[in-house]
Structure to design on (221 residues):
């Protein structure tokens, strides 16, 4: 049981490039989320999904896109990377609303 | 949305000491979690504790929902306890965890 996995672990982009951060979970959780963590701050919600085919915006959604075609996978797309998107990105999943959330190991992204 | 405040922001201990970390929240919350972010950046689940007290080895947590706070106790601290401790709560939204800014704990040998 791998839990929540994320790839890549590290990524460097140039301004304007696009990329997809991958997230997968093998716990059959319906609810998945993406958070970003910036220095000195806690985590902030970007987007979340309550099941395959259903996504919604969180607190800081601008510049990011998500889709959920399967229960297991929840990729996060950066459409046109900007230096303000330099951050550590965490994917999380939970079985139920307000349930215990489990986090992946994170992706450290630098945008030059 | 709710506000989550943690104190103290920084804490330095000698190995073997005990400590208490506090989390205050601005409104009623339905569930609360404590995490340890280790020096490699991993978020480790410590407690999922909407109310009451739970213990896991040297760590325990108490949430008093009616008074809007939670406490994390670390006893006989070890150097491996170093890192950032976050509390996070659901309040208002079923799907969004609101995080505090964390307590940076350093345990010296």
């Amino acid at each position: 049981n791998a839990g929540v996995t994320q790839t890549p672990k590290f990524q460097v982009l140039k301004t304007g490039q696009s990329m997809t951060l991958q997230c997968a979970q093998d716990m059959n959780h319906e609810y998945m989320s993406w958070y970003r963590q910036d220095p000195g701050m806690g985590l902030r919600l970007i987007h979340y999904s309550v099941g395959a085919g259903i996504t919604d915006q969180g607190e800081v959604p601008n510049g990011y896109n998500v889709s959920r075609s399967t229960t297991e996978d929840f990729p996060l797309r950066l459409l046109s990377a900007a230096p303000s998107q330099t951050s550590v990105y965490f994917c999380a999943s939970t079985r139920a609303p307000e349930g215990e959330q489990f986090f992946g190991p994170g992706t450290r992204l630098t945008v030059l | 949305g709710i506000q989550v405040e943690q104190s103290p922001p920084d804490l330095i201990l000698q190995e073997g000491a005990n400590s208490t970390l506090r989390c205050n929240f601005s409104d009623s919350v339905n569930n609360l979690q404590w995490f340890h972010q280790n020096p490699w950046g991993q978020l480790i689940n410590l407690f999922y504790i909407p109310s009451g007290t739970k213990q896991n080895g040297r760590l325990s947590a108490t949430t008093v929902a009616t008074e809007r706070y939670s406490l994390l106790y670390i006893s006989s601290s070890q150097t491996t306890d170093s890192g950032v401790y976050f509390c996070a709560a659901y309040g208002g939204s079923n799907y969004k965890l609101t995080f505090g800014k964390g307590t940076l704990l350093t345990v010296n040998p």
In short: Chain A is about 0% helix and 50% strand. The longest strand of chain A covers residues 43-51.
